[in-house]
Amino acid sequence: MNTQLSQAQIASYQANGFIVIEDFLNAQELEHWRKVVTEAIASRGKTKLAGREGQEKWQEGDGYYDRVFVQRINLWQDNSAMRELMLDARLGKMAADLAGVEGIRIWHDQALIKQAWGNPTGWHLDNPYWSFFSQQAISIWVALDDVTLENGCLYFVPGTHKTASYTNVNIGQNIGDLFLAYPDWSTLNAISAPMKAGSCSFHNGLVAHGAGANMTPGSRRAMTCAYMPEGSRFNGKANVLPQSYLDTLKEGDLLNNDEQNPLIYSSTKA
Ligand SMILES: O=C(O)CCC(=O)C(=O)O
Ligand SMILES: [Fe+2]
Q: Among 18, 70, 139, which residue has the most ligand 1 atoms within 8 Å of its CB, making it the best to mutate?
């Protein structure tokens, strides 16, 4: 795993709100990640979020959003091989160094499989969906297939993380709705991020991003993980937090539960 970051890469991430890292996984590691993701999804079944079997809200249906991608969240919580991949401190250090923070917790992982002929991923921000607000939230997105303009690569609008508020839109059928909420962004150009399988990108939780449709008969598989900077506080949104934990939280509380949000790296702890 190529986890080295140069100062130039960190500076580029901070200026643009995203960075692509080529050849992140070697061929053997890529095979392993593919296998783990495939098995974890298969054993999860139709429930999108760990621990929510039978809850209607978290079951895959057949609407537009269900055809954007197969989305399975917090696979680390119910699959031990995925837990080993996601809790790797080297990933935490990359995320912390790019974000410019001391400590990083897992917010949630997610497999995002844009299947053959899948819908585009409408433009959105990530962090406003989550239970904490942070300008330093960050996600890794690992390409498990060659990701191209044809099968649904990511797109970013550079620099938007600097002017974003926490206003957001849902990933819906009108893929450009985000630009109605942020009219100042509507004349900016997007950058596409095609990647070879095994490459990855990191993006800021407030940078405008989306992905194209899958216009091919093959799947575009990605394994992703969203990270929360250590010290983040509860903003009142439930998002993926279980009810039993929400019952103990009030707005402003530190989100420091090691079971739900493991601290995978801290520069101040050995
Ligand atoms: O994979 C996609 O289509 C979208 C990914 C995304 O929005 C994210 O990782 O935050
Ligand atoms: Fe996103």
A: 139
